[in-house]
């Protein structure tokens, strides 16, 4: 059974930090890219950051310099370190896992940044 489980969301004040984790299990195929997307109320889901298996990263302009994405291939886990959080970072954060044939989504974890 494939599972993509996010954790680490919560409520934080502006300027604060949070680290999100995403662990994938039950996936037989090699995982190529893992990443995070977010969706704020009334808005479309948008890319936050992705990381390939060799650890090449891609960040949305809005988070560059504030967020850092890392990956543990042995554990099929990614970590999104978020610092300098802003109220506009408030959203549900979703983990995405891509194999050669398909991709999987987690259920999402809420991040709320108060001003």
Helix proportion of residues, in percent?
under 10%
Count of runs of 4 or more consecutive helical residues: 0
Helix and strand pattern = EEEEEEEEEEE
Summing up helix and strand content along with how strands pair, one would put the structural category as mainly beta
The end-to-end distance, rounded to whole angstroms, is 40 Å
Which regions contain 5 or more consecutive residues with pLDDT less than 50?
none
Could you tell me the mean pLDDT?
A: 96
Compute the gyration radius: what is it? 13 Å
Task: Based on Cα principal axes, name the global outline.
Answer: globular
Description:
The protein is an all-beta fold. Helix content is 0%, strand content 57%. The chain has strands spanning 3-7, 10-13, 18-25, 31-39, 46-51, 57-59, 67-72, 77-82, 91-99, 103-105, 109-114. Strands 2, 4, 5, 6, 9, 10 and 11 form a 7-stranded mixed sheet that branches. Strands 1-3-8-7 form a 4-stranded antiparallel sheet, with no helix packed on it. It is globular, with a radius of gyration of 13 Å. The mean pLDDT is 96.
